[in-house]
Amino acid sequence: MRLFVLVGCGALVTPAAAAESLQIQGVTGFLSEYELSASVSGQSSNWGTEELSGLLNVKHVGLCTHDGPNEMLGQLKIQFAGLSHRMTATLSFDGRECTYRGFLSESASGAMTCTGNLNLPVRLWAK
Predict the structure, then answer these.
(1) Residue 70: which region, alpha, beta or left (left: phi > 0; alpha: psi -120 to 50)?
(2) What are the chain's domains?
(3) pLDDT digits (tens, 9 = 90+) for 26-39
(4) Given 10, 12, 37, 47, which residue has the most CB atoms within 10 angstroms?
């Protein structure tokens, strides 16, 4: 949340940053075969940017077999810029780094671009 203090006739943004915390859920994969979950926290800056980060858990929930572990740990970083509802999320797991630019909404799906020219569908939302 952004904290505003009214002073006289003008509004100033306070230099003190407010702490934020979110529980993030999501799915990725061509058949939504991976569940994503993370608890992220961070700070709001006085320039209108919020940066949150935390541990990411990626769990295979698909019916088909696959190569690799059924559960992976990684890192999730989310940045909200200005008053826009758009965000940039960086997901690091299984030796890959993926970037998603879009909305934090259960109904909004998009694609994340990963290292190795891999593009995966993704949906992320706050719980």
Answers:
(1) alpha
(2) 17-126 (2.40.128)
(3) 999 999 999 999 99
(4) 37
